[in-house]
Structure formats: structure tokens, C-alpha cells
Write a structure and sequence with these properties.
Number of helices: 1
CATH architecture of the largest domain: Sandwich
Strand content: over 45%
CATH superfamily of the largest domain: PCu(A)C copper chaperone
Distance between the termini: 26 Å
Helix content: 10-25%
Order of helices and strands: HEEEEEEEEEE
Largest sheet: 10 strands, mixed
Number of strands: 10
């Protein structure tokens, strides 16, 4: 858990005690999550890491990232807990032949969703930790231009995309 989330939990838990000691009544509020590192309006969904069929080969990471923020967001990297290195790629058609090309950055316009899916954009996760197993979970962290970050839990799937 992040330090800010722990601190927020302590403050929220202590507030009724402090206000009670002052003979004041605390306003009832829903617990508030700590603010994410990313700019408001950015979200990630359906994250998954598909393990390679051959141990030692790269895995593939798929997800959707949505920008409902105030302006364009530029994705510049994706980290995966349990992978030593990652690379963003896109599959492009060059004269009837599909080729993988490196993505250094991906602009996501306001109101748009970028999909990382088989046969298209994806993240290659190299040198995977042997403890990553189908049916488990890991974390992905998206980094945007300017240093903003957004993390999400990713399901780990067996080769071929099944648990």
C-alpha cells in the first residue's frame, strides 16, 4: 500500500476520535481513496498478462486506457511487476505483411480509449519472474509524458489467453 493511502487511512480513522474529544460531531462521509498519481480522467481496464508458451520468451500485456481528462494524454511506457523489461509495440500492415513496430509514445486524445489487444498494440514483458503463474495477479504501471503514472491489477493468464 502506498504511504499516502496509509496516511489517509490513519487520518480518516482518527478524525471521529479527535472531533469527539472536542465535543463536536464528525460529519458522516464515505472513506476517500488516496488521490492517484495520474491526472484526473485517466483510467485503465481489462489488464492481463498472457504468459509465453515457452519459458524464457516474452509475455504479452493487454489492456484499455481511457482518457476522459481535460486534454490529450501521451502514454510513454508500461512497467509490469515481475518483468525486468517491457516494450510497447504495434502491429502494422506493410504491403500485406504484418510487422511489429516499436511504440515510443502513444497520444490518446480527450474522450478516446486506446486498446492494447492481440494482433494490434501490445506490451512485451521480458525476463519474467518464474513466480508469475496463471490464475495469479500482477501490477502494471502506465507512465505518461510529464511523469504521471497510473497503476492497475492485471490477471495472469496461461499461454493462449486462458487461466
Amino acid at each position: 500500500m502506498k504511504k499516502s493511502a496509509i496516511l489517509a487511512s490513519i487520518v480518516l480513522a482518527a478524525t471521529p476520535l479527535v472531533l469527539g474529544g472536542c465535543q463536536q460531531e464528525a460529519a458522516k462521509k464515505e472513506p476517500v481513496e488516496a488521490a492517484p498519481d495520474a491526472k484526473p480522467g485517466l483510467s485503465v481496464a481489462n489488464a492481463r498478462l498472457v504468459l509465453p508458451a515457452v519459458r524464457g520468451n516474452p509475455g504479452a500485456v493487454y489492456f484499455e486506457v481511457t482518457n476522459n481528462g481535460a486534454g490529450e494524454a501521451v502514454l510513454v511506457g508500461v512497467a509490469v511487476t515481475g518483468a525486468q523489461e517491457t516494450m510497447m509495440h504495434d502491429v502494422v500492415d506493410k504491403g500485406g505483411v504484418s510487422e511489429m513496430s516499436m511504440l515510443d509514445k502513444l497520444p490518446i486524445a480527450r474522450g478516446e480509449t486506446a486498446s492494447f489487444a492481440p494482433g494490434g498494440k501490445h506490451v512485451m514483458a521480458m525476463t519474467l519472474d518464474p513466480s508469475l503463474a496463471a490464475g495469479g495477479k500482477t501490477e502494471i504501471t502506465l507512465t505518461f509524458a510529464g511523469g504521471d503514472k497510473l497503476s492497475a491489477e492485471a490477471a495472469i493468464e496461461a499461454p493462449g489467453g486462458a487461466n
